[in-house]
Amino acid sequence: MSNYTNRANGLLLEPADHALGRSRGGLSTKIHQLVDRHCRPLVVIIGPGQGGDSPMLPHLLSQLRVARLGPGRPRTRPDQVLGDKAYSSHANRALLRSRGIKATITQPADQQANRKRRGRAGGRPPAFDANLYKGRNVVERAFNRIKDWRGLATRYDKLATTYCGGVVLRAITLWLN
After folding, report:
1. 78-87 long-range CB contacts below 8 Å, 24 or more apart?
2. How much is the mean pLDDT over the chain?
């Protein structure tokens, strides 16, 4: 995981792996983001290509800060999280529940089978609103908007800090439109 919150002498630290990791297609970088319902990025973190999505959710939520129109602290807790099967872990659901965030996340078939196999001890299935889940395509559309920039889609940058700067610049242009 690339951590850009550590600073040395006012400069961002470059991660040792440069946010590059091996995946099926070779060396790649993954962009993790939280977006609002208008496809605008709220939090962006980059990591190596083989890194999982699920472990990044706590880091994304910890970076969330949405300024209020009037006085007051920025909001740090969304009302709802829509996620795909990658975010369906028990730890993620417990984190969202502890923070009072409603989760609309599908359960993978293996988790459903394990719960059913355990019978009554498996508990009830988590709440799921299929109509609300249809709005999850906003996340995929947001990724497509970021990847409209060829340099971000193909990662020409050598340094992760430079690439992250390009992703943040693209996020700013999306907010300005």
Report:
1. 78/34, 80/104, 80/132, 81/105, 82/132, 82/133, 82/135, 82/136, 82/138, 82/139, 83/57, 83/136, 84/136, 86/52, 86/53, 86/54, 87/53, 87/54, 87/57
2. 87
